[in-house]
Design goal:
The chain is mainly β and 166 residues long. 0% of the residues lie in helices and 50% in strands. It has a single domain, classed as Beta Barrel (Lipocalin).
């Protein structure tokens, strides 16, 4: 049996690890959507799990796994799955305080940009959608605020570190 060796994600993704409160706005949903998210490494540090939880009948709750074989140096796959049974594959890259994800799919392309703010205590993710062949429009914006103190306690602190590092 032949196995593919995957590339380790860069350390910049360590900044995502932890629990976050989220406030989202979506172009098709009135008002703010309050939820939560978490990021944690799978043992070995090659894959990062991203979980989101949102109220019913709003933005779907989902899980995504970032990491795997680089299609291009510095570009990793992200497999996305949500409560509707939807699955998608995105590409992810990072540079400095910003990381990007996108998928090019005729009739439903998406691109997102996330930037850290407030020394990493917050992050803003903006998604654009092209479902009309070249007409991009803002689709979703989510502000992440890192949970501090007791709310993030009780989790195994070891999951916040890559298992191959001291």
């Amino acid at each position: 049996m032949c196995a593919t060796v995957v590339s380790k994600l860069p350390k910049v993704f360590d900044r995502l690890v932890g629990e976050w409160d989220t406030v989202a706005t979506h172009r098709l949903i009135a008002g703010e959507i309050r939820g939560r998210a978490s990021f944690e490494w799978i043992r070995g540090g090659q894959f990062l799990i991203w979980r989101t939880e949102n109220p019913p009948n709003t933005v779907p709750s989902a899980i995504a796994i970032i990491g795997g074989e680089e299609s291009t140096p510095g570009v990793w796959p992200m497999s996305y799955f949500d409560e509707r049974g939807v699955s998608r594959v995105y590409h992810v890259t990072s540079e400095g305080d910003t990381w990007r994800l996108w998928r090019d799919d005729p009739g439903f392309s998406q691109r997102g940009t996330a930037a850290f703010e407030e020394d990493g205590a917050a992050m803003r993710l903006r998604f654009d959608l092209d479902d009309e062949g070249g007409k991009w429009k803002r689709d979703l914006e989510v502000v992440y605020r890192r949970k501090m103190g007791r709310e993030s306690e009780g989790r195994d602190p070891a999951v916040h570190l890559r298992k191959d590092e001291p």
